[in-house]
Amino acid sequence: MSKIIKFGEDVEGYSIPVLNEREIRAGAGILFVLMFVAILLAILKGDFLLLKYAVTFFLVDILIRVMINPRFAPTLIMGRLIVRKQTPEYVGAQQKKFAWVIGIILALTMFVLTTVMNTYSPITGLICMICLIFLFFETSFGICIGCKVYGLFYRGKAQYCPGEICDMKTRQNIQKTSWVQVLIVLAFIAFIVATVMLFNDTLNVAPHNLFNPSEGLPTE
């Protein structure tokens, strides 16, 4: 039973249970796509069916991670299959558990409000946005926001963080950003704003069919 209900893997060379960050990021990507599409349908079409299913799947998946074993969570299994040819990147299990408990609270609240009570409100909208931000940062940047919160409560106790941020004291030259690079980013933002202001009316014209120019053109 102890091999089934367990949080984290015992890996040689690591003093505490760890998890594979690569499969966690892949699993977060799967959940992000599902939640993003479901939320778009709810916002643009007022169709909450997929969102109700998505929240239910999300809740069940994350409950399996925390209450039983991450090895048996469906999205992490899919993530493991996707990244099976990549070298594992081990991270401490304890801070991940803390982060996923936060996920359970958010998912359970959403489940009660949207699926059980069949309601929507600014509360559900805010929780959806928080979930998307958490998932996006995990899958895109490898940043576990919940793990950051864990560090605030248990300062100095987090081990084996993604990218070794728990241990890294100084940045290497390749990680440093110069003022020139910052100015390039600011200039690019200004370019985007100027483009929208100058070409919005032109780009807002509905496109026409490439092979039938008359189709799709506005009629008088």
Q: Layout of SSEs?
A:
Elements: E1 18-20, H1 21-45, H2 49-68, H3 74-82, E2 90-92, H4 93-116, H5 122-141, H6 145-153, H7 179-203
Antiparallel strand pairs: 1-2
Structure notes:
The chain is globular. It is built from seven helices and two strands. The protein has two domains: 18-168, no CATH class; 177-220, no CATH class. 27% of the residues are buried. The chain is mainly alpha-helical. A two-stranded antiparallel sheet has the order 1-2. The mean pLDDT is 88.
Number of helices: 7
Number of strands: 2
Question: How many domain modules?
Answer: 2
Mean pLDDT: 88
The largest sheet has its strands arranged as 1-2
Output the radius of gyration.
22 Å
Tell me which oligomeric state these chains represent. single chain
Estimate the global geometry from the Cα principal axes. Answer: globular
Low-confidence stretches: none
Q: Please identify the structural class as seen in this structure.
A: mainly alpha
> What order do the helices and strands follow?
EHHHEHHHH
| Major sheet characteristics | 2 strands, antiparallel
Assess the beta-strand content as a share of residues.
under 5%
